[in-house]
Specification:
Number of strands: 8
Oligomer: single chain
Structural class: alpha+beta
Radius of gyration: 30 Å
Strand content: 5-15%
CATH class of one domain: Mainly Alpha
Strand order of the largest sheet: 1-2-3-8
CATH topology of one domain: MetI-like fold
Number of helices: 12
CATH superfamily of one domain: MetI-like
């Protein structure tokens, strides 16, 4: 006879959990976070109040009211209108910001292009080409940037010919003149109908983007390759050119010309800008070149061999197979290089380039005081630009990351 089983006795009864404030993981996590926030907040409050008391005891004013005070000094390089004695310290701050962004922007573009070129040359099968690229990387990467900036300023651009013997980089057209006082170049004077040419250029660019997108989509669906380089160039050149000539060529040029002891007309870049631009470009190009070389080497050689075996040209293999797979390894160090370019531009104070450090954190601070506000704004500027660059490139980096299947 089968024995009866008590179903109630066979059910496992879980022991009742007792709540312990000091042992509960969630409570401890929230408690320590609140404790950390409280300590940091108290430290900032103590630091701020103590600083305010010390400034008040010394009779020093605080706040950002000095922004509207007139600045009594001039700067030899500015991108906005400014008159000493009329312009304010807010104008000086804007001038410094624009000058810093200008040299940083061009240095980032130039160093990225040069870095990619040198990085690919490092992998060349030609012994001489590879060794020259290696020498470039080793020389500029292992030399302090400050020394390079001073070298380019004192040893190159300051020793260029004088104004009357300026070097014509435009081969006689006097469009681009280089001397020991800087680079002088012609500036455009736009007519009233030039906006139609700009509109035609915008339409041509949009059309090229659409053509490229459709060509790529067709290739993914059918495998058929269509060459669009020449049609794209023709579209970008012919459409604006036809519009330009049809509207009566509404564009003139203001050429620099020598009058007395200097050039008159056009625009110019001072030697300090040129030296800083070249130094930042070659220094960070050496870093980017190594990142490019390492990224390409991280791609398995079998990928290139497989692409060559199906008939792809060498340049197509690099652009369509190798580089897309190397991008996830190249972009993170390139982000650091771009951030360092912006921050290293502050070394321009050594050669007198009027960036934000030279104009705002040095000259303005010496004249108006307010050290805490001025230094804080300068730090906030660099931090903001760095966060913007890092955020945008991190978004792009996530999009190009390889997804395992």
């Amino acid at each position: 006879m089968a024995q009866s089983v008590d179903k109630k006795s066979s059910v496992r009864v879980r022991p009742k959990e007792e709540f312990n404030f000091f042992q509960d993981q969630r409570v401890r996590s929230i408690f320590y976070q609140l404790l950390t926030v409280g300590i940091v907040g108290w430290f900032l409050f103590y630091l701020g109040s103590n600083t305010a008391q010390n400034l008040a005891a010394r009779g020093m004013s605080t706040g950002f009211g000095f922004f509207n005070s007139t600045a009594g000094f001039d700067t030899d390089f500015k991108l906005i209108a400014y008159t000493p004695g009329i312009g304010t310290y807010k104008d000086i701050f804007i001038i410094g910001v624009l000058n810093t962004l200008l040299v940083s922007f061009f240095a980032i573009i130039a160093s990225t292009i040069l870095g990619f070129f040198v990085g690919i040359l490092r992998l060349s099968k030609n012994w001489l080409v590879a060794k020259v690229a290696l020498a470039f990387v080793e020389v500029f990467r292992n030399t302090p940037l400050l020394i390079q900036i001073i070298f380019w300023f004192m040893g190159i651009f300051s020793l260029l010919p004088v104004i009357k013997k300026a070097i014509d980089l435009s081969f006689g057209a006097e469009f681009l003149m280089l001397s020991n006082r800087g680079l002088y170049f012609a500036t455009p004077i736009f007519g009233s109908l030039f906006w139609l040419t700009s509109l035609a250029m915008a339409i041509a660019i949009l059309a090229v983007i659409i053509i490229r997108y459709r060509t790529k989509k067709r290739q993914e669906q059918t495998g058929q390759q269509t060459k669009i380089l020449l049609p794209s160039i023709a579209l970008l050149v012919l459409l604006p050119a036809i519009t330009f000539f049809a509207t009566g060529m509404p564009l003139e040029w203001d050429f620099p010309s020598i009058e007395g002891f200097n050039f008159v007309g056009g625009a110019s870049l001072p030697p300090a800008f040129l030296a800083l631009f070249v130094a930042l470009t070659v220094y960070h190009a050496a870093t980017i070149a190594e990142a490019v070389r390492a990224g390409i080497l991280s791609v398995n050689k079998g990928q290139s061999e497989a692409a060559l075996s199906i008939g792809l040209e060498q340049k197509k293999v690099i652009s369509l197979v190798v580089i897309p797979q190397a991008r996830p390894a190249i972009i993170p160090p390139m982000i650091s290089s771009w951030l360092d370019t912006v921050k290293n531009s502050s070394l321009a104070v050594a050669i007198g380039y009027n960036d934000i450090v030279s104009l705002f954190m040095q000259t303005s601070l010496n004249q108006i005081g307010h050290a805490i506000e001025i230094v804080g704004l300068t730090m906030a500027f660099y931090m903001t630009i760095s966060l913007i660059i890092s955020g945008l490139l991190n978004i792009y980096n996530k999009r190009v990351q390889l997804v395992e299947r």
